[in-house]
## 1
Amino acid sequence: MKVIRSKAAMQRLADRLRSQGRVGFVPTMGFLHEGHLSLVRVARKRCDSVVVSVFVNPTQFGPEEDLEAYPRDFGRDRRLLGQEGVDVVFRPDAETVYPDGFATSVLVERLTRGLCGRTRPGHFSGVLTVVAKLLNIVKPDIAVFGQKDAQQALVVGRMVRDLDFDTRIVVAPTVRERDGLAMSSRNFYLTPEQRRQAPVLYRSLRLARRMVRDGERDAASVKLAMRRLIRRESGFRIDYVEVVDTGELQPVRRISGRVLVAVAAHLGRARLIDNIIMRA
Ligand code: PAF
């Protein structure tokens, strides 16, 4: 497995890999867990070579967010990626990605207004700008994103479509701990007590599914029941509980067809997100 730090070397190697077969790409911010590794396995299955990037992207963190504290352990990441048979790890530094004079940012309208976009202004532009750069450097056939970050996956897919990137976006299922908590690098921030409480977010999503299965169609009633369940655990600061359509992520009043039920909440130092897609 090669670890590459320079853009030019990554571009040269990616050109060579592409001439030999299909290239799969998984962008990450490191501190890898089973969720990331499942994305790598999807890329591995569909492609001849796999490139993974490890870069904690400063532009997607707000001024009050956890950029400095974001967990990092490249030695461990490298070992895990080696075990997965990854061909190349691209690990640029911030000056390589954002050299002096860098002044461009990518914006996807509408889809980024709600959900995480509402309380994290600038976040998706930061994500899109770095993903656009990484896709231009690696030029993969496919790039794999996780369903846990449903809005991110959709927004990246829209950018790729609107700007004619020659890459297909593949979305892989959320990987959960045994008690249902969606895997996330930020779970690392949870104290043992908060770790015990955190799965209530997934339980609230399952409650939504049960209610809809039992015939409930009023989104407000579903959201209220979810909020009540989460509030039974102390310490949560709910960011949003939403039911939106899966195309434009607009809130729905009446649940019919395919919807995304999404939740985000702060618990101690961690901001946790989760979602499910269901059909009424
Ligand atoms: O999902 C993430 O880890 C990041 O948002 C990504 C896609 C690697 C961009 O920095």
## 2
Amino acid sequence: MAADHPEVSLVVPCHNEAGNLSALYERVLAVMEQTGKSWELVCVNDGSKDDTLDHLLALRCKDPRVVVIDLSRNFGKEAALTAGLDHAQGDCAIPLDADLQDPPELIPELLTKWQEGYDVVNAVRLSRKGESWSKRASAHAFYRFINWMSDTPIPNDTGDFRLLSRPVLEALSKLPERRRFMKGLFAWVGFRTVSVYYHREPRLSGTTTWNYWKLWNFAVEGITSFSQVPLQLAAYLGFIVSLLAFLYAAYLIVETIVYGNPVKGYPSLMVTMLFLGGVQLMALGIIGEYLGRIYEESKRRPVYLVRSIWHSREHAKKLLLNRGDKM
Ligand code: UDP
Ligand code: MG
């Protein structure tokens, strides 16, 4: 067994997950003991407002295999996951949700595939328990739509729960983009990929921070990061509208020649104007989405900022005491 680094890194982004962490640790512990591999649990505290950090530090005191990365504020799940993967030391890494929606019991299956020589092992959801019909339907539609639009095939119904080998982690860390749609990036890097299947469980405790507005923005992020079809769509739509306008003009000319022209242009004028105005605004909006992203990327700000990292057991204990003193 390698001495200085673990074989498996489990990476967990945590945002207000105080109620789930001890259950997560217990289940991970049970599963990892079974596999006989050396491991670490990299937990990223993504600006939690509850006492997630204290729970993480307590776990860390109990078990030095728990690594805690505290971000300077809430950067969002994609950034938190990036932070965790950047700091993972293992020969492979497995991102997990803290709410136990991704069952740790699937990990041995992922590891088996890895040992067979695969670099990426996707965990595909067969069902999503405890999620509303509308969320399941919108997720279903999202995966199909983005695959239709994007040149990078993004596996259907696959979240961030998957196994990534060290070469994949190296490749991911080389991707320079600031705005990280992880599912797309995981797919973009390629490598030998295989899927295993599981049933997604409901959240253990707490509530999801993803409302429909956030999910919509996430979908727009995914589409604009991995497809230029919307830009082309704007151009095609413009072309079709112009063509229709041209045909309509021809019709008007013929009508005028044949029947003369009693003044009655108002409705057609309004319809044409509003329609064209709408199409133009839409096209501008789409261009704006991409432009905004170019602007974001051009600022070259870091994806996340780390407040502190807990490596050693003593260090974690000290900080826990300090925090206790202050409270
Ligand atoms: N999460 C995070 N930062 C955020 C929001 C969520 O790190 O700003 C974490 C959260 O703690 C959980 C995972 O991302 O471990 C998935 O979040 P959630 O369960 O809310 O999403 P859902 O499962 O509903 O898609
Ligand atoms: Mg969840």
## 3
Amino acid sequence: MKTKLVFTTLLAGALLGACATQPVTKEEPGLKDVLGDKFLIGTALNVWQVAGQDTAATAIVKKHFNAIVAENCMKCAEIHPTEDTYDFKDADAFVKFGEENGLTMTGHCLIWHSQLAPWFCVDEKGKNVSPEVLKQRMKDHIYTVVKRYKGKLKGWDVVNEAIMEDGSYRKSKFYQILGEEFIPLAFQYAHEADPDVELYYNDYNMHEAGKRETVVKLVKDLKARGLRIDAVGMQGHVGMDYPDMDEFEKSMVAYGNEGVKVMITEWDMSALPTVKRSANIADTVAFRKALNPYPDALPDSVSQVWNQRMGAFMDLFLKHADIMDRVTAWGVTDGDSWKNGFPVRGRKDYPLLFDREYQPKPFVTELIERLEKEKAENAAE
Ligand code: 9MR
């Protein structure tokens, strides 16, 4: 009996030893493994994730993504809070995280009317500064920030959200002071600061015909002036009932036709009904429930529609892989998303590729399986 036990133990040991050099289970591929030869697949990161305080999110980033963008810490109000102060702490940590993990990084964003440091466009009395002063401030800001990360980032969102859905220019302070000229100026300064870095125009609702037309015109104009523009970023904050997929595709093709790459830069899809303020607000309880219909979990029926539509968007990106350079989700898991606070504070949304338990959504798992299979079939041919 004793001899038999010793023999069994030895045999098991020998088998284990053999297994140690030949892993028996193959690790499941991540998104970047199946999409890497088509386009970059990225995510926005918040400061807690960069600081390593959310290790489960970090694990997802390492396994699934090959590109990152800073959700907030490179914006003007964060990085340049007063005229004489820059605060690079969080942005430096973001870049260090990207370098340590071999991730392609995008800077977001240089010139944007929102999250703009309050001093930027006004004097001490709160009056708009002159065009010359604003040009100098833009130049100082862009030069300082872009030069600091020279050689580390692949590209910058140079101007964010400057065009309205009807194709007119947003009447931001930049526009009020400098007119349309503020856009070419921003691209010029960014290129002067780092001639090797890619430069992007980034905006939401890019499927709208009016906006499409003006953005196409903008790209033509920048090119005609000999300025650099590498890609147009379509943010891709979509919903269950918008945008029309054909209009979205029309815009992708229209931008691609201008000889620039197309990127989906802030992808997410709210699973909640679009808010209509005209609802019967006399019934407050019912109204609140309508605004936040799934406080516990997303019902299966809704989840199915959501997954089907996200899958359809991904298929559209794959169809145009020749012009797509990157697809980036605006956050890692549902719990991180800005959508939980917008347009209604405190409601629970389900817009991202991973759920609150850090699990991939069904369309993500299906996509990985499908593309893995296609790869294997192609390799066998
Ligand atoms: O996700 C960002 C959120 O944490 C910030 O509070 C918000 C402030 O405006 O900005 C969010 O990110 C925006 C991005 O920078 C530009 N496009 C729209 C995004 C969602 O508002």
## 4
Amino acid sequence: MLRRSIILTAVLAFVLTAGMIQADEVSIIPKPVEMTVGGGEFELTENTKILVEDATQQVGDYLAETFEPATGFDLTVKKPGWFESKKNIIELTISDEISVGDEGYHLDVTPEKITVQGSDPAGVFYGCQTILQLLPAQVYSRTEVKGTEWTVPEILVLDEPRFEWRGMHLDVCRHFMPLDFVKQYIDYIAMHKMNTFHWHLTEDQGWRIEIEQYPKLTEISAWRKGPNGGKYGGYYTQDQIREVVEYAKQRFVTVVPEIEMPGHSVAALAAYPELSCTGGPFEVRTEWGVSRDVYCAGNEKTFEFLQNVLDEVIELFPSEYVHIGGDECPKVRWQNCPKCQKRIAEENLEDEHELQSYFIKRMEKYLAGKGKRLIGWDEILEGGLAPNATVMSWRGMGGGIAAAKSGHDCVMAPVSPTYFDARNSDSEYEPAAIGYTPNTLGKVYAYDPVPQQLTDEQAEHILGSQAQVWTEYIETPEHVEYMVLPRMSALAEVVWSPKKSKDWPGYQQRLAKQYLRYGAMNANYWAPIPKGLQEKNAFMQNGQLRLEEPVEGAVIRYTTNGKVPKADAQVYTEPVEITEDCTVIARTFMPDGKASVPVVGEYKKVTPHESVSVKNPKRGVKFSYYEGNFDKLPDFEKLEPAKKGVQPGLTLPDDVRENSFAVKLQGFLKVRFFGEYTFYTTSDDGSKLYIGDQLVVDNGGLHGSQEKAGTVFLKPGYHPITVTYFEAGGAHSLDVKWQGPVIKKRNIPANVLFHK
Ligand code: ACM
Ligand code: ZN
């Protein structure tokens, strides 16, 4: 692979001259393994022919169909004959001579012809996706675009995916998504060179797949009470499912169906209450969350029902995997059910967790008998993992690590950062979403599915990763688009591109064109927010507003009167002096006119803090440590500490317990220079930082690790500093940083912290 590319690099470098297309103008996402750009270009015309062989016919037809709406060209797709011209052709072949792995391809564009060689048809398909990205972004338009030259730069690309599982999940149960959008979603998956569509088809709030043996699943389970008294829901017929599976197959996307068990199954129980422990009655749930009512694990009829359902599911989905859910199954009904208790006794099970394990193992065996593999959320590890099960790790990476260490395959799907139902940013203008901290584009891009603690051999068990789109708060296809675009382009790069090629600035540069593609598709993508605006800005005489366009080609518009900027608002071009208290609101306007959500910054004129005198200052800060049940910052005055002492810095004391506790840190900060100081806290859960009596950083509330900042002006000398913190249980952390005159952002060092 390398050898050939080195030779071609030399040849192409020779012809590269000024004014020609440069490598940084090429925007291939996910970034290819290797690429060399030359000086010429290929022009796609109505006479371009697509040459195929048997194995690439499907891809050739797809490519011609995909070109058609925007270009208006009805390209000929044919097998080559001796009389064919050697010019103006796109040749699609399978080759076992190229040195790329499964799904890999080799793309060679010269002014005369384009050659795609794939190691398999999927590889050829991905080579064609790259061709689309090399064309002007308008090629993604669904209507004809006149007056465009459809040119492709001379280029050589060698490419293959890093992971075999590159997926997107979609919950169509909390809110039903129309069939056309499901296909559109598959198109998004394919254009990002992803290959797995995890279709979450059953839930407490709705059953979405027709099962012929159980008609009540679509008569009753597919519908719930709507918000205005009507009924809400829908389902896909088996014909529609087959249509989706075929559509996906044409795009090398495998559809993995998810049929939830033993929990998240109230919709099915509403139709068949005899499958529950209590006998019901039940209604298809209208509230989100977790239900206590689940399938009865002691009743043989439950297994008969699920096996019959799976029989039909298996017929519909050629996927090697069937996802059986397995998550969030409360055990309270099983604890009180004679049938479940009898099962526990007869099977010599330790407890209800082992009963869950019994349930999953039984389903795994059933699926294995049908030639299928079981995959489930990481709760399937509880009570012992079924022998050949694959784990989908959502509660962090821990489940995946445990699976990989015990020799099981896993797919990484951690809440942070692959739950795309989390907000895109912490702008207060983001649409209502589930309460996780935002999974920003940057966070998704920085993610790596392979945890460091695994050996190379264990890491082989990580099949890849996928993003989750749960739809409690997402009611429409447009809103799904807003949550997945462009984050799935970042995830695509994570799961496709070599780890060593991670390059955030380069990715952002390429993203500029990706946004144009989304725009050409009329997709309701999330437009990136302006960079650089802090929430709180304190100034003395003059403040400064400094912003940065988040992507090339976009402009920022802003107001200082508290109104949301519209398309005619002031354009930001350079730093702006602020002289009075005001609220700045800024938005990005994309080249296609789309605007981002607003970001808000408060500017406040302040007087500097006077220093205080401290007699006999001693090194270190005082800490008080409290035990109790805290879900917010307590009133420390009313509490008796479990421990007190002095420690060097603004950190959590040593030896804190795992469950709920609170901490107060108090001391004096010695400041050398007059000026503006910004303090930052990153904490899990909440914290507050005070200088004197002023609350400077408000990072309170129950949350995962998140950073907040605040600014004050300090005169030289000693300033009282207090940090309060609480932990509600689970992970705990506190990190305090500052930045000021001649101080780069860093932790506050022990040599400026004192107490008396
Ligand atoms: C899940 O989010 N309950 C898998
Ligand atoms: Zn039971």
